[in-house]
Amino acid sequence: MNEKSMTPPSAGTMQPPGVTIGTDTPPCGCGGPHVSAITPGAENQTLGCTTCGHVQGLVNVAQAAGGFVYAVGHLRARFPNLGAEKEYAQQTDSDPDALIRTQEMKTTLLDETNRHLARQMQWIFTGPASEVCTVVTRESADLVNLVEALSDDDQTVHALIGHVAVYVEPSASVQPNLPAVWVDQLFSFTVEEFVRSLPDPDRESKVEDAEAWIRTSRQLFSWLTQRSGNRGLSDQHRAMNYLALRYPPIYHLAFNQQHEGKALIGVEAHLTPNGGRREVAVRFIFRHAQTHVTERYDCQVDTHDLFPFLTRSLMLSYD
């Protein structure tokens, strides 16, 4: 997997929800008393001066306490408006009505003379069923990493780990109806590459077993990361995406269970606070095709911080 590490947001950009964000001298310079208070209720709200109406930025109220993202999907670059699209056509001397191929766009945006276009693009991360967030950067190097991650290969998958930005400057590159995310890590790979990177299960090497292993691993990866509603924003979905990417024993379990005639029929995830930290219990449920006997295997993931980690290994449950 290719990894792009990026600069996290500075602490100065983070503000608690429901408070007034202001200074003695508002950025607009109108001399007004303060910028407006955040009023909880909408995902993104405009932050501006109450005196002259100057827009200072957008505040993500829903994630103002400091949310994290651990999402699996696809990164796409989108023109924010018609003007940017026409500028691209002029810079590339191309037909403005022609279909733009991702590889062509990638080559164009990597050219330093077109860096202004790369900064104007909306970088949208899409999950299995909907758009997840707008990816925002703080440095030119981060922007280059986003461009390099673009791919027109439908088999390419991206994994995004980052902080939800509470406050961002107003810009055409930020989609107002989506949370903005500062990216800390970005992985790019194909499912085939991922499956082949997994350690082999403890079985004798047979052609039929190798084919079944690849097939089962691919199906489990899709089951966990492509579930409806999995945007990688909730603790439960972050835990499942973490296990899918970083915990090979779940693939070994699924393969061995299938070899014994047991099919995976469900995956459940429940938030279980532990000593002030957020943890998620994840359960894998299997059922035998002939006997209909059900087995449950549990593990637990700490999702309190940016990077989840395992707190309890996979084991058979008897409850």
Your description of this structure?
This protein has about 325 residues and is α+β, with helices and mostly antiparallel strands. The protein is about 25% helix and about 30% strand. It is built from eight helices and 13 strands. The protein has a five-stranded mixed β-barrel. A hairpin with a 6-residue loop joins strand 2 (about 45-50) and strand 3 (about 55-60). Helix 6 (about 205-225) packs antiparallel against helix 7. The longest helix has 19 residues, at about 205-225. It is elongated and about 65 Å long.
Question: Can you tag this structure with a few keywords?
Answer:
319 residues; five-stranded mixed β-barrel; four-stranded antiparallel β-sheet; 13 strands; elongated
